[in-house]
Amino acid sequence: LRVDSGKPDALTREQQAQATYNLSLAVFFADMESPQAKARAAELLLAVGEKFADQPVARTAMEEALTLARDLHSAKPSPKGAEELYSRAFQLLLSKIPESPLLDDQYGYFAFTVLQPAGRYQEAIQLYDKVPATHPWYLDAQGLALKCMQTLYNSATAGERDTRREQFLGRAQKYQSLVRERLAKNPQPGEA
Q: Mean pLDDT of successive 10-residue segments in the chain (192 residues)?
């Protein structure tokens, strides 16, 4: 077999990417219920995104890696290494294809399950703010962002308190308006 490089058995970057992607499918479908198989398949898919981001199969690989990693991360109990794998997959897709619609479902989940427990409240707020206003979790995301701001306010130094208070009050007013708007559109039983 001769390919672009002229060396026997050399594969193009596109062929290497596709071969790695195909291997991930084989690993996954050989034992679809196994967390180890899912993790190995996700690692292979991440390798496609990391090494071959410019190739046609890369977007599909990165999105599938994130889906598998999220499944592992949300499992109870989640297998060892699931949070690191999910974080890598999320960060890779966010950095390479920030316009991916798959991220819309991930912003709030990542902020709530990874960033908030790690005390990374400012980063969590930034991700909550990326949840589209049309997304079903938008109101929840805004409420969680408000809780993060409250935590930041409560832990602020005396010099930071005035700024944090203004930010918190602005966010609280925005959230209150969102809740009122939602309730006006969808009155609860007995409120009509």
A: 57 96 97 95 98 97 98 95 97 96 95 97 96 93 94 90 88 90 79 56
Beta strands in the chain (DSSP E): none
What is the pLDDT, as a whole number, of residue 2?
A: 43
Q: Does the bond joining 77 to the residue before it have cis omega, within 30 degrees of 0?
A: yes
Instruction: Give the three-class secondary structure for 124.
Output: helix
**Amino acid making up residue 188:** Q
Contact 124, 144 (CB under 8 A): yes
**pLDDT at res. 189:** 73
Distances (CA, A) of 62 to 6, 45, 93: 30, 6, 6
DSSP-derived secondary structure for 100-117: -GGGGGTHHHHIIIIITT
Task: Give the CA radius of gyration of the chain.
Answer: 22
For the chain, percent of residues with pLDDT exceeding 70 = 93
Tell me the three state secondary structure of residue 171: helix
And the tokens for 13? Answer: 């970057």
Please tell me the distance from the alpha carbon of residue 157 to that of residue 178, in angstroms, as a whole number: 30
The Cα–Cα gap between 96 and 60 comes to 12
Question: Are 128 and 109 a contacting pair, CB within 8 Å?
Answer: no
Residues 6+ apart with CB under 8 A from 102: 63, 66, 67, 93
